[in-house]
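**Fold in tokens:**
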Amino acid sequence: MVKIGDISLGNFPLLLAPMEDVSDPPFRYLCKKHGADLMYTEFISSEGLIRDAVKSRQKLDIFDHERPIGIQIFGGDEEAMALATKIVDATQPDLVDINFGCPVKKVVCKGAGAAVLKDIPLMIRLTEAVVRSTNLPVTVKTRLGWDEKTKNIEEVAERLQDVGVKALSIHGRTRTQLYKGEADWTLIAKVKNNPRITIPIFGNGDVTTPEKALDYKNRFGVDGIMIGRAAIGHPWVFREIKHFLSTGEHMAGPTFEERVEACKIHLQKSVEWKSEILAINEMKRHYSNYFKGIPNFKAYRTALLCSNNLNEIYDLLEVIREKKFELIED
């Protein structure tokens, strides 16, 4: 049984990675429905929380059906991280997660996210500031190192555990790799197999199929797997992996009806959580993912992208449902 503090996650949990502009409540609703064991919010700027920025505050929204759920924060200043943690703590998530892995330039330039990998003492001070500011379990998501010459994740893992971190999620790339090349899980395995490490170690990077999930579980011995991009437009990935891990057999992929229904639910939940206009605009990035691999669908995708009328979009989705397009396996 894998546990983070007092949170039980089963024998081999599947985690939904925190993804900016993706891991919002509507998307998380679908991932939870289809088997995600632990989810995280989009990452939230500690400075934004302290300034009471509207976008940062909205990201604090969590719901009981999502539990267990962690709120992820990032920043490069100890005092700001401590104050942000107290704000997060008041919203009563199940845990607080620190982002030391985001490679995006606008985050790194502020000395946050993966930038902290260049200054391990600062990383430890930031982590200590968060741990001191909450009674909730604190976890960390990070990368192997800043670049090929500084893959210091083994040292980092020990030091984070020593200051009170209760679980560690490791993306198998350096910051300079961004999302290019193949994720290296051998170093993740070294962290997991370190006799000093007693906290759960979750691997992240390139798990796109049930076969890979089983292979990485067996080869690298991690306590669970964090899934990010493979869940975009395909929240069924969690149930598919769980089925394969337990039976060794593939379960049928989502039907065309399920794809349309998921798209519709995503839109409905977005309208409920955001303004109608914002929901319509932000859903446009998801249509291609939900209907990926469907032949002769271009005209309908274009119509969905061009429409700014909610009722018209619902009508389009019903027309698409009734067309019952044939699916092509990836």
Q: What stands out?
A: The longest helix spans residues 256-273. The CA atoms of residues 248 and 292 lie 26 Å apart. The chain has a mean pLDDT of 93. The chain has 15 helices and eleven strands.
